[in-house]
Amino acid sequence: MTFLRNIWYVACWDHEIAEGALLGRRLLDEAVVLYRDAAGKPVALRDLCPHRLAPLSFGRIVDGSLRCGYHGLGFDAQGQCVHNPFGPPSRTMKVQSYPVVERHSAIWIWMGDAQAADPALIPDFGFNDPDAFFVGKGYIGVKAGYELEIENILDLSHIEFLHPDTLGSDQVSQGEYACQVEGDVVWSNRTVHGEIMNERLSARMGVEPGQPADRWIHVRWTMPANMAIFAGAVPSGRPQKEGRETPTAHLFTPESAGSTHYFYSISFPRAMGDYGAQLAREQVEFLSVPFATEDLPMLQAQQANLGSGGLRDARIGWLPGDAAGARARKILYERIDAERRLASPIEAAAEAPAA
């Protein structure tokens, strides 16, 4: 599978790389090691010592450099060899480094042309900024491709059937649905009127249990697979401004063609004090149940049916709620194809129409 490379992906949550710790993770089918330098700034290198191809994540941080656990070679944040226990540092042995930025409670990585790595291109997940919000964070390793994750979040009609006792109700499919495209951003907006939600979900949404509610679930997709859900509810007939809208992040980074890193979060303003911190802990735990016990088995079974292929080449059906997913994948595939043509001029010339 060809991945989009000139774009920002989430490599890990900020708390996953503590001072002095090493995190080895496969991203876009490449082994990467992440750590913090002496100043606490995140660093990402190829997890491959050029000497004997040992994983650098098996090593340790010494005097600010990453020492290979096999023969002790040390590399700085740029991947240059700065320590050789057997003689002068080697100028020929260098490890690939990747641009990284710490933002929105996450470490973002750019695995394409380093010169094009503009931090301004990181999508806005400001509701995850730890200075202003309590952020409850979760992670699941999914044995399914990220295209299936795009479809899963952009078409939330499935919550009626896959999550009937947690996130859904038997009225979701009767709601209003709209797909909107704003440049390279896709919105999938669903509103359900007069919905009777289960007791626990009602309490979470700020509506008295058993009371009919108008619930909105608006999903924003940005490339390649970074989604925010803005969901809220009010007693039926009341204006939305009277409700409490709670944002959640759903950030997907390919591990390989058939597996994905799923980073999810929910946040509450720090102005809420201890209660906001409690809600962040409790609500991310609430979300983890349907994600791990309902979404995960379904997505992994779908991937098993796809086999080694991706969704792009599969023959699939169509329902109205599929519009946003189809638009998002079209935008993504066009960007992937354009990037591939730029990387392969000979191939691009062969594909160009005759004059």
Quantity of strands, as a count: 18
CATH homologous superfamily heading of the largest domain: Naphthalene 1,2-dioxygenase Alpha Subunit, Chain A, domain 1
Q: What coarse outline follows from CA principal-axis ratios?
A: globular
Assign the CATH class of the largest domain: Alpha Beta
Low-pLDDT stretches:
347-355
Strand order of the largest sheet: 12-18-17-16-15-14-13
Distance between the termini: 31 Å
The major β-sheet equals: 7 strands, antiparallel
Residues in helix, % = 10-25%
Structural class of the helix and strand makeup? alpha+beta
CATH architecture of the largest domain: Alpha-Beta Complex
Order of helices and strands: EEEEEEEEEEEEHHEEHEEEEHHH
Rounded average pLDDT? 94
Strand content: 25-35%
Q: In the CATH scheme, what's the topology name of the largest domain?
A: Naphthalene 1,2-dioxygenase Alpha Subunit, Chain A, domain 1
Oligomer: single chain
Integer-rounded radius of gyration:
22 Å
What does this structure look like?
There is one protein chain. The chain has two domains: 8-121, Rieske [2Fe-2S] iron-sulphur domain (Rieske Iron-sulfur Protein); 130-336, Naphthalene 1,2-dioxygenase Alpha Subunit, Chain A, domain 1. The chain is built from six helices and 18 strands. The radius of gyration is 22 Å and the shape is globular. By secondary structure, the chain is of the alpha+beta class. The strands form four sheets. It has a seven-stranded antiparallel β-sheet, with helices on one face. A four-stranded antiparallel β-sheet has the order 2-3-4-9, with no helix packed on it. Strands 5-6-7-8 form a four-stranded antiparallel β-sheet, with no helix packed on it. It has helices spanning 146-154, 159-162, 199-205, 274-306, 323-343, 345-351; strands spanning 8-13, 23-27, 30-36, 42-46, 60-62, 65-67, 74-75, 81-83, 97-98, 100-103, 106-110, 133-142, 176-182, 185-195, 213-222, 226-235, 246-256, 259-269. It starts with 7 loop residues before the first strand and ends with a helix. Helix 5 (323-343) packs across helix 6.
